[in-house]
Design brief:
CATH superfamily: Metal-dependent hydrolases
Strand content: 5-15%
Number of strands: 8
Strand order of the largest sheet: 4-5-6-7-8
Distance between the termini: 15 Å
CATH topology: TIM Barrel
Number of domains: 1
Bound molecules: zinc ion
Helix content: 40-55%
């Protein structure tokens, strides 16, 4: 059994066969699926699905960088309300981060939204599910900045947790990975890209101990080989697990056991 730490199966791509997709995930050995939120609109469908499978699906809450627009402050304050409920179901803040790849119109707003949500993670002692594309330097700067200021801010009465989480869908260089590994309580989320012929990830993983890796799919995106180009689904993660076992020179059960331990450490579940 292993955990898919990042899957958007509440999205419309799964409207036709969502229950079959969940059934296939169980048959493929996936013990639990974590669902990252994207924006205000995706909260309800995500929560409804989690309520139907409370022992199998766990939701996160956060504003995705590509959904940060001029109204981001309103969206964030709506989300913040949800965390005030003592029995909220969210296991992490996500997905959040920076994405300068397609559109830099709102990059200043993205940085502000990210900084705000990193502070939420500390305040509520929740892990972060971080998406970063073409913005490595700014991401590291913000995380470092919040961590250094954390000591000062502890003077106020707010409770502060341990900064921790996942760098989801990592696509950077070996040097980027080394720099991210300096954030001690973070792991890299590894998905279908690992199985692509031209992927540089196998080489990058030489500097990443297995204790710092978790499995993800990012369904419906980035299906692993041999399903590349199709709609991705959690069951396909078995191909990523097999590739990881090759790269680290260990057995498939060992990959599952170790990545489960990593998930438990970060998500405290
Ligand atoms: Zn995602």
């Amino acid at each position: 059994m292993f955990i898919d730490t990042h899957s958007h199966i509440y999205e419309p791509e799964f409207d036709e066969d969502r229950e079959e997709v969940i059934q296939r995930a169980k048959e493929a050995g996936i013990g639990h699926i974590f669902l990252p939120n994207i924006n205000a609109e995706s909260i309800d469908p995500m929560l409804r699905l989690c309520q139907q499978h409370p022992d199998y699906l766990s939701p996160m809450l956060g504003l995705h960088p590509e959904d940060v627009k001029g109204d981001y402050r309103n969206v964030l304050s709506g989300m913040q309300q949800q965390f005030l409920c003592a029995h909220h179901p969210f296991i992490a803040i996500g997905e959040v981060g920076l994405d300068y790849y397609w559109d830099r119109t709102f990059e200043a707003e993205q940085r502000e939204a990210f900084r705000t949500q990193v502070k939420w993670a500390l305040h509520h002692d929740l892990p972060l599910m971080i998406h970063c594309r073409a913005a490595h330097r700014d991401l590291v700067d913000i995380l470092r900045d919040v961590t250094t200021n954390q000591a000062d801010e502890q003077k106020d009465t707010m409770p502060h947790g341990l900064l921790r989480g996942v760098f989801h869908c990592f696509g950077g260089t070996k040097e980027d990975a080394e720099e991210l590994m300096q954030f001690e309580n973070f792991a890299l989320g590894i998905g279908g890209i690992l199985t692509y012929k031209k992927s540089t990830l196998p080489e990058v993983l030489q500097v990443v101990p297995l204790e710092r890796v978790v499995i993800e799919t990012d369904a419906p995106y980035l299906a692993p080989v041999p399903h590349r180009g199709k709609r991705n689904e959690p069951a396909f993660a078995q191909h990523t697990v097999e590739r990881l076992a090759d790269i680290y020179g260990v057995s498939v059960p060992y990959i599952m056991e170790q990545t489960n331990m990593n998930v438990k450490r970060i998500f405290m579940c």
